[in-house]
Amino acid sequence: MTETIDMFDAIFKRFRRKAADTAADKAMQRSQLHHLLLSLGGVTALSVLVYSVPDDSSLSIYRILWVILSSLSLYVFYIFGRRQGGLTFRTALLCVLTILAQMFLSHAVISFWIKSFPDMKELVLLALPYMLAPAVSAVLINRSTGVFVALSCTMYGAVLFPVDFSLPFVADYIVLSLLTGVLSAGICGHLQKRQQLLYAGFKLGAVVYICAVLLICLHSRSLHANISGGGVSFNLFLAALVTFGVNFLLGVIVNGVMPMLESIFRVSTHITWLEWADMNHPLLKKLQMTAPGTFHHSLCVQRLAESAAEAVGADVTRAGVCGLYHDIGKLNNPQYFSENIADQSLSPHAELTPEGSARIITGHVLAGVELAREYRLNHKIIEAIREHHGVTTAYFFLRKAQDTYDEAKRRFDEGLSDSCPDEVDKSIFTYAGPIPQCRESGIVSMADAVESATRSLHHPTEADIRSMIDGIFKGRILDGHLQNSGLTLGDIAKMKESFFTTLRTMNHNRIAYPKPRETDATERLVEKRAATAEPDKKTA
Predict the structure, then answer these.
(1) pLDDT digits (tens, 9 = 90+) for 488-523
(2) So what's the pLDDT on residue 47?
(3) Distance of CA 498 to the CA centre of its chain
(4) What is the value of pTM for the model shown?
(5) Which long-range contacts (CB under 8 A, 24 or more apart) does 266-271 make?
(6) Which residue in 59, 109, 144, 390 has a CA-CA distance of 20 to 30 Å to 186?
(7) CB atoms within 10 A of CB 210
């Protein structure tokens, strides 16, 4: 007993902590308080809902206690089963609201069905919106959250039925709700296209129909009587019509509200990320036409980021899309970036001071953020654009400015110049940052640095590539560039190996093919005719 009390005390101790000194701890406390308030609000709303079911007061009190105990059980289950980081306030609010929406909708369907079809109340199991909350949570957050929401809806929904529904009937509901909810979370958790939600509705409708008809046949005398009386075709057809119609309508509703929910809760589905990766996006088409060198660089960064994200278990699609858009700020002045300059001897930087060049180079980050906002890209893409250089420096122009300063200072010290030069302001050459704040941003920033450095190697060997990767990672780690990204030393080792493998494949050499024999014969014939024509010209 003492061990159990200690366990629950450890779980809820976080809500009784004193005010922390650091901003991070204070933010964590605020998040925990928000989660607690959300939970209390959700439990209160569900309690009001189950109290409104028309039954005696003692049964309503039992239902409220069921909701409270179920909430505590679900919270403990969430605490012990959550992934690193857990839910944010926005995603937690989304889960609470979707659960409440499904419960209120289920209550409305049950009340309507009992009043409209009192002789077929067993068929209400076919009309309940089992997939609504699990599908929305799985699409907008992840599959595991969808399964958790399905379990929550099953436990809460068990007390929505009036007292005249038997316990076997409620057991049938629990089986159908949990099965359909888990399946909807699994099917909808990684959709590639929006229309697949409609197909998911048909699939789940088939599952509900088959399982419900089998369960009703086992427990319902009225359906057995209808079958014996020859009304089976009508009832089964009606059951199929209701089941597939409800689930198709749910698929349409989920598909329709998804963009609105993404905007309100600032979350993005896998479908939306794939849409941003479409090469027909106006920004990517403009980048391809205006800055082809930058576009090719972005494609390489995308490939590197995807392979590294897969190696460390990060979001592959998100890392790849952020890699595609990380340099869109170069659209403003593409001619000033080396990948777009065909002949480096004609570089426009020759006419600029190092400070002027640095402002253009470092300015592409802010320009990229503004472009991303103009085209309404996801805030995670904007964060990756802002963070992919961190607080590093435009070292080439910083070194050039320092060399210029040293030369001017030497001339002043030797009396060859009357004015003492101003010291180099390093802030002009430093990116505004911040450093990467998530794993995907850290991966994109390292992929960008590694890909850019690879371009400076001429005919690189495997040893050259590996040495270059090690040097870049060592420098960034010492600078603290990755300290807030959430990447561990184990992740960094996997990233380095992934970058090496990908770069080795991208920079592979081909054998020198011999010329075709027909070409050799033609060249010999041309040479013979030319040699024959020379004496004739001299004679003439």
Answers:
(1) 999 999 999 999 999 888 776 555 556 555 555 566
(2) 77
(3) 20
(4) 0.71
(5) 266/90, 266/379, 267/90, 267/91, 267/94, 267/140, 267/141, 268/378, 268/380, 269/139, 269/140, 269/191, 270/139, 270/190, 270/191, 270/192, 270/317, 271/139, 271/191, 271/192, 271/193, 271/194
(6) 109
(7) 11
